[in-house]
Design brief:
The protein has ten helices and four strands. By secondary structure, it is of the alpha+beta class. The chain folds into three domains: about 60 residues, Orthogonal Bundle (SP0561-like); about 140 residues; about 90 residues, TusA-like domain (Translation Initiation Factor IF3, 2-Layer Sandwich), CATH 3.30.110. A four-stranded mixed β-sheet has the order 1-2-4-3. Helix 5 packs antiparallel against helix 6, helix 6 runs antiparallel to helix 7 and helix 7 packs antiparallel against helix 8. It is elongated and about 80 Å long. The chain starts with 16 loop residues before the first helix and ends with a strand. The relative contact order is 0.10.
């Protein structure tokens, strides 16, 4: 009697540690956790290495499969703001926090063991540490300040803090260029050990993820809130010269206006969060930049708070008053 063919399950047991370390994000950290030598012993199969350590290979395969699923989970980009932010945090922010520390460990080992090799990426460990610190500060600002504002005010105007995030994205891009220079474009020397191979493979994945991260924010998330700025300027009923529209998508340095003036319509922000949003926007501005502030009433208590907080750094100038509202330009002063 013929037997019904059973589906063949995918297995990593017969693949080498070096191959798995190169192809699966997070595998090197997992192997180090279980003391599986993917460097000098990178030619061993997972099954043989696990057996030598007395470890259940099935458990390691389950953990590797979980890493694969984490990578696949971020394949689709959601449409709505809340889900898109969750996608950015879970896929990119948590992914960078997971991957960069391991890349730093690998880079330090390669620089130490192969210090005399002419192709050693000298200085890579320090560069990755700087990237980790700057990325962490950047992601913290997004998670604690910008993203909560976006969730609370899906039609709000957040161009000034977004402009700062875009500028920091450019800084990240310059550091990625530094990685490429130190590693000769991630080109491995002949006979590179498994750790060196895993490092460059991991750097390739990290580079791809960081570039996708920046694309998702710059070209999908941020324009939704910068577009709100154009609508606010066009529809706010005060007598003033309308500003030029903000052309922000896919334009190099387009987030920085030629006139260095950015509109902020406070009337579209819930009163509970209005002051926090205004102070955040003013903090994000650079010396010489101006926030054109629109509101449905004259915010005298707010002006007093701004004066106490910023002192001479920010100067307020009334542009227009009417029954419909007020425009005040806040100028960030340049250093004397």
């Amino acid at each position: 009697m013929p037997t019904t063919p059973q589906p063949q399950s995918q297995t990593h047991a017969h693949r080498s540690l070096g191959e798995l370390a190169r192809e699966i994000s997070g595998a090197t950290a997992l192997f180090r956790q279980h003391r599986l030598d993917f460097c000098c012993g990178g030619d061993q199969t997972l099954e043989a290495a696990a057996r030598a350590q007395g470890i259940d290979v099935g458990m390691i395969e389950t953990q590797l499969a979980a890493l694969d699923q984490q990578s696949a989970a971020g394949a689709q980009t959601p449409d709505d703001v809340g889900s898109l932010i969750e996608h950015i945090v879970s896929r990119f922010h948590e992914g960078h926090r997971r991957d960069l520390p391991e890349l730093i460990v690998l880079a330090a080992k390669v620089e130490q063991v192969h210090a005399a090799h002419p192709a050693v990426p000298a200085g890579l460990t320090q560069l990755l540490q700087t990237m980790r610190d700057e990325l962490e500060a950047h992601m913290h600002k997004e998670e604690q300040i910008l993203f909560p504002l976006m969730r609370r005010n899906p039609a709000g105007f957040l161009a000034p803090p977004i402009a700062r995030m875009r500028q920091e994205h450019e800084d990240h891009g310059r550091m990625l260029q530094g990685v490429q220079q130190l590693t000769a474009g991630l080109r491995l020397p002949p006979g590179a050990c498994a750790t060196w191979q895993a490092l460059y493979a991991g750097l390739g994945r990290f580079t791809d993820e960081l570039m996708q991260h920046v694309h998702t924010e710059n070209n999908i998330l941020f324009p939704q809130f910068e577009a709100a700025a154009q609508s606010a300027v066009a529809t706010f009923p005060v007598e003033t010269t309308p500003m030029e529209p903000l052309h922000l998508i896919n334009q190099p340095h387009a987030h920085r206006r030629a006139d260095r003036t950015y509109a902020f319509d406070a009337s579209g922000i819930a009163k509970r969060f209005r002051h926090a949003a205004i102070f955040g926007a003013l903090t994000a501005l650079e010396p010489g930049e101006t926030m054109a502030f629109f509101n449905d009433h004259d915010p005298i208590p707010l002006l007093q708070q701004i004066e106490r907080h910023f002192g001479e750094r920010v100067r307020a100038e009334y542009v227009s008053r009417s029954a419909e509202g007020v425009r005040i330009d806040f100028h960030v002063q340049t250093a004397a």
